[in-house]
Amino acid sequence: MTNDEKLKRLADVEGMDEMELLEEATFDSVAKGICTNSGCDYTTEVEPDQDAGWCELCETPTVKSCLILAGMI
Fold it and tell me: Stretch 21-48: mean pLDDT, rounded?
């Protein structure tokens, strides 16, 4: 999946649209993150600049923050 597709999936999982998700992350010290492996939708809170967070399901460093997925950082 592309970063855009993962960003949309993360917003869907969190029950908000993409702009709401990004706005929340912009004004907080944490951001929502999602595993970027195909077929995995593991989500967690991460640092806003996280681009290699640990996925508890895949056991790989593939969790990215929504701000990274959107190309804002």
Answer: 95
The full set of domain ranges for the chain reads 3-69
Q: Which two tokens stand for residue 11?
A: 């917003």
* Residue 57 to residue 73: CA distance in whole angstroms: 25
**How many C-beta neighbours within 10 Å does residue 49 have?**
12
CA 17 to chain centre: 13
Whether pLDDT at 1 is above 90: no
Give the DSSP letter string of 36-59: -STT---EEEE-TT-SSEEETTTT
**Burial class for 7, CB neighbours closer than 10 Å (0-12, 13-18, 19+):** buried
The pTM score is 0.93
CA distance 19 to 61: 26
